[in-house]
Amino acid sequence: MASLAIGQTHAITARSILQSSTARVAMNPPHTPPASVEQFLQCISQEYEGLSKQLKAISRHVEAHRDHLGLQGIQSVAEQCGVQPSAMVRFAKHFGFSGFSEMQRLFREGLAEQIAPGRAYNLRLRDVIEAGSTSLQSPQIADEFIKGSIAGMQQLRQELDQQAFARAVELLADTQAIWIAGSRRSFPVAVYLDYALQHTEKRIGLLNALGSMQQGQIRSVRAGDVLIAISFNPYAEETLQVAQQATQRGARVIAITDSRMGPLARTAEATLIVQDSATFGFRALTATMGLAQSLFVALAYRLEISSQPTSTGRHRGALRAVAQLPPLLKAANS
């Protein structure tokens, strides 16, 4: 009898384990491989927080070097990520690929069209420096810097997430109060947005961290307000704190940053990715400023459209009719 009881217990235990395992598989079905690089990056961004340390390192590398993954072997990519090749295989399988080779094919398709001008420029510049071109004259340095700025703008045009941009404009149009936060390299962009947005009839506030006063300023943020937070790697701690506190107070965050996997993007309802090219170690602001100006112009246009006369002749908004858009933009440029 004792042997029979033990056998029944083992059978029940085995059956329970099998049922539990089956339930876990049902709740967590395997990934279907992404159909495009953009879809793949979105999947990585959505699951980034739950990944292991090694897979996070691979995720960041994939986002930053996606143009060249189709050309490099697994050993080379693994070394650049600081992981073993087996981790690359685990990463690929986690997102539904059969292995590294299948994942690589996704990046290899249309590779000639995928290479962004900014990253191509950075590679060319690195080759120039490594070749020993240390005798560049000042005009040549200026020329290289201007080329880098142009490449950054071309890359922004090529890679701007149109859906995220439209969502950002929608958030700005629907709120009554807009706050801007940006420190260090991002500070000039934040100041420009503060200046430009003053030409709308919304309440505008710059959380400038002057004298560490942002902790007091953040108390004025209310639910329904929108915060434009600007920061790039290495991310300004004060900007990250402000974004987190604004979210806790019920505000919605628009992030202007350089990575979907970065800490600022995790608090944002709309994330606008921009990556300015670096020339001799100095990053330009051309693309970032261009994105900020585009955001303001798109908002101004949206507000003017909404203020056109209705069938009863009344205005739906506080600004003038769309025919007066040029004067509004002229004022913002003065």
Automatic annotation (TrEMBL):
<dbReference type="InterPro" id="IPR036388">
    <property type="entry name" value="WH-like_DNA-bd_sf"/>
</dbReference>
<dbReference type="GO" id="GO:0003700">
    <property type="term" value="F:DNA-binding transcription factor activity"/>
</dbReference>
<dbReference type="InterPro" id="IPR009057">
    <property type="entry name" value="Homeodomain-like_sf"/>
</dbReference>
<feature type="domain" description="SIS">
    <location>
        <begin position="168"/>
        <end position="305"/>
    </location>
</feature>
<dbReference type="InterPro" id="IPR047640">
    <property type="entry name" value="RpiR-like"/>
</dbReference>
<dbReference type="InterPro" id="IPR001347">
    <property type="entry name" value="SIS_dom"/>
</dbReference>
<dbReference type="InterPro" id="IPR000281">
    <property type="entry name" value="HTH_RpiR"/>
</dbReference>
<feature type="domain" description="HTH rpiR-type">
    <location>
        <begin position="38"/>
        <end position="114"/>
    </location>
</feature>
<dbReference type="Pfam" id="PF01380">
    <property type="entry name" value="SIS"/>
</dbReference>
<keyword id="KW-0238">DNA-binding</keyword>
<dbReference type="InterPro" id="IPR046348">
    <property type="entry name" value="SIS_dom_sf"/>
</dbReference>
<dbReference type="Pfam" id="PF01418">
    <property type="entry name" value="HTH_6"/>
</dbReference>
<keyword id="KW-0324">Glycolysis</keyword>
<keyword id="KW-0804">Transcription</keyword>
<dbReference type="InterPro" id="IPR035472">
    <property type="entry name" value="RpiR-like_SIS"/>
</dbReference>
<protein>
    <submittedName>
        <fullName>Transcriptional regulator, RpiR family</fullName>
    </submittedName>
</protein>
<keyword id="KW-0805">Transcription regulation</keyword>
<dbReference type="GO" id="GO:0097367">
    <property type="term" value="F:carbohydrate derivative binding"/>
</dbReference>
<dbReference type="GO" id="GO:0003677">
    <property type="term" value="F:DNA binding"/>
</dbReference>
<dbReference type="GO" id="GO:0006096">
    <property type="term" value="P:glycolytic process"/>
</dbReference>
